[in-house]
Amino acid sequence: MEKQTTNWLFLLWASLILAMTMFFMGNAMIQSNKNNQQTSQGITNTISVMGEWKASVAPDMLVINVSVSELAATTELAQTQANEKISKVKAILTAADIADKDIKTTNVNAYPEYDRSNASGRKLLGYRAQQSLTINVLGEKFGDKWGNIVTNISKIGGVNVDNTYFDLKDKNAAYAWAREKALTDAKAKAEQLAKASGVSLGKPVMITDNNISYTPGPIYYAKNEAMGATADAAVSNALSPGETEVTINVNVMYQIK
Asked: In terms of domains, do 145 and 192 share one?
């Protein structure tokens, strides 16, 4: 009798263990199927929309890029000549109340230059030294300073004003504001879809910052040699900053209740 009871208890425990094993295996298979479905078809029970916002932002900074390029018999002489012109440019900027922190050297280069048109082989012409500066003009009426700065730089001779454009000192603030508006646009679209579908909108489960577009247009491009006698007239007028467009796109996925 005792042996039969022991066998019965053993079979009971074995049946319980088998049942629990089958339960967990079945649950894992169901979860795996859900994961596979989410992977192949996207997250289920959601609404996915794209929000967009275009904002016009007033620039608060003017950027001027200038460069010098000097050819001489030696590298040292070419660099000395380039340094002298850069020093004259910086003196003009100091006189225009441009702070040192707003003047950045962006390129310094020196290399031998050859005439490759000679049929008998290349001929050494000398040594070329190049330097470039990026100048940020800030403060009140920053656009008004442009004319005098470029006019005085042009009088140095051999200094190129490569391009000028309006910009934002803190782009992140503009991006943050436009991003909030884009999220509001996305929510409005999702609510409209939910209402039309007869469902309730839940919380966002995925947000992707998809695209940021900000491209300040160039205002001015001129080589010093091309400015000629009309340089003063060409740059005498103050510039109007106008507005620059910032575009933000976000993808948002909401739960369906």
From this structure: no
